[in-house]
Amino acid sequence: MLAKKIAVNTIISALARAVGILLALATIAIITRHLTRNEWGEYSIMLTFGGIFAVIADLGLYQLMVREISRPQADELKIASNIFTIRLLSGLFIFALAPLISLFFPYSEQAKLGILVGMAGFWLLSGGQVLIGLFQKYLQMIKVATAELFGRLVQLGLVWWLVLSGAGFLPLVAALSLGGLANFLLIFWWARHYCRLRLAFDRAYWWNVLQQGYPLAVASILTMIYFSSDSLFLSILKPAADVGIYRLPYKILEGLIFFPAMFVGLVMPLLSRFAQTDREKFKNIFQRASDVLIVFAIPLVAGTLVLSPAIINLLGGGKYNESTAIFNILIVAVGMIFLGTLFSYVLIALEKQKSLLWISGVAAIFNIAANLIFIPRYSYYAAAAITVLTEALVVILMALVLYWFFRWLPSFKIFLKSLLAAAGMMAALWLLPGWNLALSLVVAAIVYFGLLYLLRGFSRADIVNLIGGQEGENMPGSENSAV
Question: What is the reported pTM?
Fold first, then answer.
């Protein structure tokens, strides 16, 4: 039944997340049509600052929360309350630094005020994010997705009303913060159903958490450097409008990479449980998770290459046609992030998180150097290409480290079958030009999974197991199938 619960949580949460992404994209579509290209660029700068400081504020606490409360006989109240308190207080200080630091950047006064107003929302979202570990442990990610939907709806409703009222830049930023407040309140309320959270100040435990978390924190900061330095360098070296052109498809990327994080987060308690006690079960879970991520990453990349013009036109209202080429480049990075997310969590489960430090450090050095060299000349095209190369470097290095420590990597037999099915899907989309975007997505899914089934990428037994569940700790799937 555990496999069924993971599958049901993943599917329902994914559907809710898909709706959340649609709400976020609808909000962006309204904002991009209402603001000028330069103002959207300034809004994008605020989002870039928020993303950077959210990573700094993480301190490795989210991964530690998941790992520690998943262990046998864990003192859940002590762990959750102390880690939550650390996140709230450290986050308050860290996010307060953002508007102060922005004073030293060559931004307009409006952009700097936007950073000041927007950081409140990012602080609240950060506070709720650390509690997600509780929902993962109890396989209740549906509630996390629901809270996000609620926050998105609040923001969308406020943005719609503000645009109709003729409001300007700053009220639209404030709508983001109010949406973050709605999300946080619902997450916190639901979390208290599983654990009676309170503010806790166990100094000895705080010190222990920070000692364990610092490798993850440093690795996250280094990851942030190579993940966000492109937008930051664009904002310094190029006009705000260039940042807006780049950030429009980048916002889609940020939404999509939640899916592997959500799925692997649900699998993480199993990985942590069996990493030291049952290597065969650990390998099985690792293999199944890898297969699932590949099966969904391949059509995502392939479908985007065909549908990107329609997607960008829908979001930008015809004002950001330059973003189409950027989207086609960035989607390749998304595919790599699917596997990279799994590899990083596996390293954490094996307690090899310190290896993430030097991997992220190498990637950050490469990314910064490449951005400084190529962005002044090639602008957002360089930023997108460097993002892809950096993600490829990270995945390769993590795979090498995993093999060095574990002497085993999952099979990638499913890759070729997924690639062939995706090729058929792309052909179907090309033969049906001008179709409604939503209908095209439905056709793409039917063609891809139909072809994958014919290629024996998954079996009827997989579907039965998914619907009916199976005993044991394995991921959904039969012994002879890839998924």
Answer: 0.77
